[in-house]
């Protein structure tokens, strides 16, 4: 092994670990609803992934696919020794992370004014804020070679078609999740986590907030979206005493109204803009991604809770995002 190989080997290890670290930190930031900070951490994970890939290629670990598959079958994945700190953070990345630290110290996310669109060169991992350059200042790659982490995509990049389909699916998934559980089981918080009923009431609350915002965006010109925080899980404890049939009815009715508003909208309508205090001017599509990704997270939690109730197991529940958010 030459000195360069040793250095590349070290880089591969530290960048691979770094990529995992930043990716899982990004997921956690999403749970805590720091969506702009999550976007920064996702871009940082991409920087490390690109650098790890470069090191892999220099080490000669990337051959034709047939050879790669044979290596994989033979269990010959590159050996990595996971030691040492996560390193390789550039001065600019540090500056962005310091902005995040400052916002978090004040208990809030970065705003769209504090963290612009981010772009990562897919060839060399160079990170840019603001506008994507015509050519990468570091390696010369064209603009088309950049991965983007834009503010408008901060809630996800599902199409309007997929958003409507997911909202429809909820109408089947939610009743299926409560099927066969007693009122007592549904009202019982597990290990300090919310009760089933809290979450179902909460999903309805969020559906209503989303529909109100969607209506404003569609019917008025560039509205300011409610600055008040959407109802949190803490506000959903009151649903614990409501019969489950009533909660399901409330969810279904709200969701049908939301779907009635969204079905058949043109692409232009999905691009209509509302002004959000943290995310800035965002299209309806952004808000659709927001409500769908929020619901998806809670449906997964509900499925885990159901499993624990039915089989008496106690898998560690994923921390519910609102509990972490005062
Ligand atoms: Zn580059």
Automatic annotation (TrEMBL):
It comes from the Bacteria. Residues 167-300 form the DinB-like domain. InterPro entries: DinB-like, DinB/YfiT-like, Ferritin-like, Rbr2/Nigerythrin. PANTHER family: RUBRERYTHRIN (PTHR33746). This is Rubredoxin-type Fe(Cys)4 protein.
């Amino acid at each position: 092994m030459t000195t360069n190989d040793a250095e590349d080997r070290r880089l591969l290890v530290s960048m691979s670990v770094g990529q995992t670290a930043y990716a899982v930190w990004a997921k956690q930031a999403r749970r805590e609803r720091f969506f702009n900070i999550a976007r920064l951490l996702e871009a940082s994970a991409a920087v490390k992934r690109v650098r790890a890939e470069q090191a892999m290629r220099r080490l000669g670990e990337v051959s034709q696919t047939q050879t790669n598959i044979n290596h994989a079958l033979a269990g010959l994945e590159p050996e990595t020794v996971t030691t040492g700190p996560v390193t390789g953070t550039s001065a600019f990345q540090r500056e962005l992370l310091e902005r995040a630290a400052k916002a978090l110290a004040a208990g809030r996310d970065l705003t769209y004014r504090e963290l612009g669109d981010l772009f990562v060169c897919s060839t060399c991992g160079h990170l840019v804020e603001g506008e994507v350059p015509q050519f990468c200042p570091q390696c010369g790659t064209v603009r088309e070679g950049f991965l983007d982490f834009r503010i408008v995509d901060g809630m996800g990049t599902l199409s309007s078609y997929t958003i409507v389909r997911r909202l429809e699916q909820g109408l089947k998934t939610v009743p299926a999740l409560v099927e066969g559980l007693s009122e007592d089981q549904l009202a019982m918080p597990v290990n300090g986590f919310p009760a089933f009923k809290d979450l179902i009431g909460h999903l309805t609350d969020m559906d209503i907030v989303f529909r109100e915002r969607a209506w404003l965006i569609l019917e008025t010109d560039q509205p300011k979206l409610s600055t008040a925080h959407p109802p949190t899980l803490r506000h959903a404890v009151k649903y614990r005493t409501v019969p489950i049939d009533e909660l399901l009815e409330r969810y279904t009715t709200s969701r049908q109204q939301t779907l009635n508003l969204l079905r058949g909208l043109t692409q232009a309508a999905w691009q209509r803009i509302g002004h959000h205090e943290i995310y800035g001017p965002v299209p309806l599509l952004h808000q659709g991604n927001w409500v769908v990704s929020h619901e998806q997270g809670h449906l997964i939690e509900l499925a885990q809770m159901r499993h624990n109730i039915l089989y008496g197991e106690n898998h560690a529940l994923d921390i519910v995002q609102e509990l972490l958010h005062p």
